[in-house]
Structure formats: structure tokens, C-alpha cells
Amino acid sequence: MARTRHRAAALAALLALAGTAVAQDRETLVEALRHAVDFRLQVQAAFAMGTSGDASFRAPLEQALGDDNPAVRAAAATALGRLGDRRAIPALERLLQDSSAAVRLQAGRSIEVLRRPPPAAASPAGPATAPLPRPSIDWDRVRYVVVVGGARDQTNDQLAPALLVRMVDALAQHLLELPEVAVFESVEDVDAGTRREMRRRHVDLLRVDAELKGLTRSRSGSDVRIEVAVNVMLVSESGALRSLMGGAAAGEEPGRQADPEQEARLARQALAVAMRTAMAQVPAALASTGPAPRPTSMR
Fold this sequence. Notes:
alpha/beta; 12 helices; 5 strands
């Protein structure tokens, strides 16, 4: 344990240096990715591996795809796409069934990057794989086509990275509950057939993004309180803001001293309620975009 903590501390110091310096200490990065007690160091290690250009990092990154923390899995999936080794595609494909929408999203994007034809001088491609499955759309019900966007942080709080992953999950989960909405995990998943149907029915492609607007800590007597504020944005394909929805909530419970685990738990609880509040406004926001009337006959 002492050696692991030493390595994690060394990694934190390395990350303050230039990227080339980070890439040089392979042992430190690998051990931090596998054993760091702080998931944020694992995420940073994964990103450093992804930008290193060192193909030997593929194996530890693939192993990290099975980490318990979805932020680490998403970071490893992103890093494998940046690393550019097509042999990672099978491991990434297994992540397309991950419980986290954010992880599935990053895995799909990295697979797409890795499947692009390599330059003539590049190494031979890995085994051929089937194209990503496209969602089946019941056009008799669907009136809106929406892409799950990303989440950005305005707080610079240490809890933010894990909360951003949960925000993307919440976007996907709440959208999937709306029967009139066809949900896609990326713009690239909106294929030509879907585009044709959208043109026929005068349906625009929209994106839903999230923003962690605020995260504050306070104490009242013996109670610890964490308040979270979020924004959810409905955005057109051109990037124009169509609607802005907000939500805020607080988690509170007794606590006598600073406890990072308690703060993280309260922040997660508050975030879930805040996102539910914001996403409850999405149906009205979609209706305000004015979709075409549902056709009475479409053959």
C-alpha cells in the first residue's frame, strides 16, 4: 500500500510536467492506473497513456475497461481511441453493453476512430468487425430525434469528474423514458435512412447537453450539506441553444468531520434529484421546437 501511494504521489507530480515527461515513466503510469486509491489519478494516467503513442499501453488500458468506476472505464476507452491500436476494438466492443451510457458512448466513439482506414504507412489493421448496431425506430411514435451530448464542469471541484459521468448517464436514461423520442449516442449513429425519414417528416436533429453549474458545501450544526446545481441545454444541430432547463438539490446528513466519501455520496444524491428536475422540463422544451404534425398515413 505504501508503494502504491508513493507511485500515485509520483504520478501527481509527473502530471504537472510536460506530456513527454509523463509518457517516459511507464511503470508509474501503469501502477497508478491499476492501483491508485484516487480514481482521478487513474483517469489522468489513462489520458497520459492515450497521448503517449506507446502501443505497450494497450494492455493495461484494456484491463482498465473492467474497472469498478465508470469514470475510469470511460477514460480508458477514450485513451484506447487516442492510442490508435486497432487491436483494442474487440475489448471496446464488449463495452457497448456497459451499464453506463457515458462508457458506451466513449467506447463507440473510439471504435469509430479505430475503424477509420489507416494511412498507407500504418501497421496492418486488426481483425474485421461488424458495424455498430443502429437503433430501431418506430416512426409511428417518434416525433423527435435527439443525440445524447456531453457534460461540462463550471465548478473545478474535485468531485466534478465522477459527477460528469453520472450526468451523461442521466441524460440518456431520462431521454430513453420518453416514447416520442428516438435517442442516439452520437451524431455519427444517425444514419442515412434516419436522415431520410427526418426530412420526410420535417424533424430536426437536436442534442441535449448538461452543465455542472454549482457545487457548494456547508455545515449546519452537526449536519453536512452538499448542494448541486445543473443546467440541461437543448441544442440544434447547428449549435444554437433552443432551450435551457435548470435543476438544483441538496444532500444533507449528520457528520462531525470532513469525510470525502460522505461528501461524494451526498453530491451523488443531490445530483440525481437535480438532473431529474431539469430533465422533467425536456418534454415541454421539445414541444416548443414545433415538430411536424404526426402524419395520418405514411406509406
